[in-house]
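Example (one chain per record):
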Amino acid sequence: MKIFKSALSYRGQRCDITYFPTKTFDDIPDNLIIKIHAVCFWNKKLLLVKHSEWNIFGIHGGTREKEEKITETLKREVLEETNCSVLDYRPLSYQKIVTANQDIHYRVQYICNVTPLGEFESDPAGSVNKIIWVNPNDFEKYVEKNEMRQAIFRRALFVYKDFHENT
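Predicted structure:
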């Protein structure tokens, strides 16, 4: 299932975004992956973060630093924004973003099992101001009714249930 939308980027530029579920990021040029996000689980609960800027719950993640591997970004962002450590992870989905001047980059999403390292106090960048652990089946009560966001969570629940039923 692929979802397409045209939107304004955070810089106010028009861009086209296409969502793809996946099992691998091997077909994506590594140098074009600039954002990494994670849907995290612990103790049969789904982790949601409240974004300071938009005042909505969703998944966490952020921008890849220069020379950083995508899995390093994943682990760093999870730690910084949730005070959790990544135990294991696998590719979940990605978004291909094409800007008005035809620049292309990607946002990738992982599904992760994590463990809390203590209480969440604050995100150093200030983009997350709260985390909550919820029943995975209740995500729609918290997450914005945006087609792509909903698709990411639905896919994460499918992959999570499939993984735990077969282990």
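Caption: The chain has one domain: 3-165.
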